[in-house]
Amino acid sequence: MKIICAGLNYRSHALEMGRAIPDQPVIFLKADSSLLKNNKPFFIPDFSERIEYEAELVLKICKVGRYITPAFAHRYYDEITLGVDFTARDLQTQFSRKGLPWELSKAFDGSAPVGRFIPKEELGEVTSIGFSLIRNNDVVQRGNSSDLIFGFDALISSVSQFFTLKTGDLIFTGTPAGVGPVVRGDRLRGLIGERPVFDFAVR
């Protein structure tokens, strides 16, 4: 099982990070040990002084595919949820300045919590799925799939030119503006529309 992530896939987030708007998908991977399910708590690692949340819609791949065209990409995922791409921002900043890979700041254990998956046919038009992240009692991120730079089908097609997609693989599709730090004692809740999909503690 692969966890495939798209970076800088909302203009608002690219701008808040001071990055250029990408002209092709920015892709990185998380380790399988990054996955955190069933509302298990997220434990802040000792190696970072600034862990930040990034709420993202997550696609679950439902069949094997390679060299998928955008026209057929919708056939390769059948469920969607919201997840969090936890990022050790202090490490990522150091690595970026040195031109080094991001993985140690992105792919550490527990850095990819996901909520319960919803069949995509229950969500209506997949090009307009709204979502939100609540930290404690405050809505800290709102997003909509209509604002993606590279939509679901474009991401699936692009990734499949490099990796064979397999049943159960996950694709994190990118985060909107509003990313920020977590501290021990926080509670994070994620919603797709009005549907709660995760609710977990930060420890």
Considering the chains and any ligands shown, give keywords for the structure.
203 residues; alpha+beta; 6-stranded mixed sheet; 4-stranded antiparallel sheet
Describe what this molecule looks like in 3D.
There is one protein chain. The model has no long low-confidence stretch (mean pLDDT 97). A hairpin with a 2-residue loop joins strand 10 and strand 11. By secondary structure, the chain is an alpha+beta fold. The chain has a 6-stranded mixed β-sheet with strand order 2-1-12-5-6-9, with helices on one face. A 4-stranded antiparallel β-sheet has the order 11-10-14-15, with no helix packed on it. The longest helix is centred in the middle third of the chain and has 10 residues.
Structural class: alpha+beta
Estimated share of beta-strand residues: 25-35%
In which range does the helix fraction lie? Answer: 10-25%
Q: Low-confidence stretches at least 5 residues in length (pLDDT < 50)?
A: none
Spatial sequence of strands, sheet with the most strands: 2-1-12-5-6-9
What letter string, H or E per element, gives the SSE order?
EHEEEEEEHHEEEEHEEEE
Distance between the first and last residues' Cα: 27 Å
Q: Kindly state the mean pLDDT as a whole number?
A: 97
Morphology call:
globular
Rounded Rg: 16 Å
Q: Using DSSP, what is the number of strands?
A: 15
Instruction: Summarize the main sheet.
Output: 6 strands, mixed
Structure annotation, total helices: 4
Set down the secondary structure blueprint:
Layout (H helix, E strand, L loop, with lengths): L2 E5 L3 H6 L9 E5 L4 E2 L14 E3 L1 E7 L15 E8 L2 E2 H10 L4 H4 L5 E2 L4 E2 L10 E6 L2 E7 L7 H9 L9 E3 L7 E2 L5 E6 L2 E7 L2
Parallel strand pairs: 1-12, 3-8
Antiparallel strand pairs: 1-2, 4-7, 4-13, 5-6, 5-12, 6-9, 10-11, 10-14, 14-15
